[in-house]
UniProtKB/TrEMBL annotation:
Gene3D superfamilies: 3.30.160.20, 3.30.70.1660. Residues 36-77 are annotated as: Disordered. The keyword Chloroplast does not apply. This is Prokaryotic-type class I peptide chain release factors domain-containing protein. Residues 40-61 have a biased composition (Gly residues). Keywords: Methylation, Protein biosynthesis. GO terms for cellular component: cytoplasm. Belongs to the prokaryotic/mitochondrial release factor family. Pfam families: PCRF (PF03462), RF-1 (PF00472). The lineage of its organism: Eukaryota, Viridiplantae, Chlorophyta, core chlorophytes, Chlorophyceae. It comes from Volvox africanus. One of its GO terms (molecular function) is translation release factor activity. It comes from the Eukaryota.
């Protein structure tokens, strides 16, 4: 459903992780969705749950291209987060009984590329004479440089270049790379923690939408809207766009209502 919707929007769909179920469905999936302007992602799991993430930038993708209304990928897909309930008659059901299953969908923004900025006051720079082979120049000038990044304790030394200026520049380059790696590890850990928390929350929360196959309908319980075009929703077509549009309108109306209440409360 989301893959076809993403394709119709001109987005790139990349499966990052996929775990199948014994019944041939999807137990867990992680998908990255992107375009030239911004990225976000939606993941869905057939039997167990799913996770999505994207590198939408700091404000959650509202500056990117969405599904034609100017919203970003993250902003467009975020309302899909929650528990989706499926009611259908499995192929293995001999008596035609309707079975109910759920899938947890989580939408996450992916962290921006880290912009490593090194402040001078955070550095302790020491110079010394280089050691080792290299002729007279090695032993005569204080060309070797050792830089300590005080906040993290990282230490980088360089003596391979002929001048102190060159060694300083080379050491700073190495330090910046190490700080970048350190920050990326930190962000990855934070993202994993956020993802785990959202999955746990989704597993405990009430359903947001029901897909009823026998009756061919989809009901979004947050806005009490039923679309009697299940196939269009599952194909990522007009049915799904109608649900997304109605959710967006309801959110805007609620935001406007809260704004009016705040203004009325302030003037009272």
């Amino acid at each position: 459903m989301y893959r076809k919707f993403a394709t119709s929007c001109g987005w790139t769909w990349q499966v990052v992780e996929l775990t199948g179920s014994e019944a041939g469905g999807v137990k867990h999936a992680v998908v990255a969705v992107s375009n030239a302007g911004s990225t976000a992602s939606g993941g869905d799991g057939g039997g167990g749950g799913g996770v999505g993430y994207g590198d939408d930038g700091g404000n959650g993708g509202d500056d990117g291209e969405g599904d034609g209304d100017g919203s970003g990928i993250y902003g467009t897909l975020l309302p899909e987060s929650g528990v989706h309930r499926v009611q259908r008659v499995p192929a293995t059901e001999a008596q035609g009984r309707v079975h109910t299953s759920t899938a947890a969908v989580v939408i996450l923004p992916q962290a921006d590329e880290v912009d490593v900025r090194i402040r001078d006051e955070h550095l302790r720079i020491e110079t010394m004479r280089a050691s080792g082979a290299g002729g007279q120049h090695v032993n005569v000038t204080d060309s070797a440089v050792r830089i300590t990044h005080l906040p993290t304790g990282l230490v980088v030394s360089c003596q391979n270049e002929r001048s102190q200026h060159q060694n300083r520049a080379a050491a700073l380059k190495v330090l910046r790379a190490r700080l970048y790696d350190l920050e990326m590890q930190k962000r990855a850990q934070e993202m994993d923690a956020q993802r785990s928390a959202l999955i746990s929350s989704a597993d405990r929360s009430e359903r947001i939408r029901t897909y009823n196959f026998p009756q061919g309908r989809v009901t979004d319980h947050r806005i009490h809207l039923t679309v009697h075009d299940l196939s269009s929703v599952l194909e990522g077509g007009e049915g799904l766009r109608r649900l997304m549009g109605a959710l967006r309108s309801a959110k805007e109306e609620e935001a406007l209502r809260q704004l009016v209440e705040q203004e009325e409360g302030g003037s009272a």
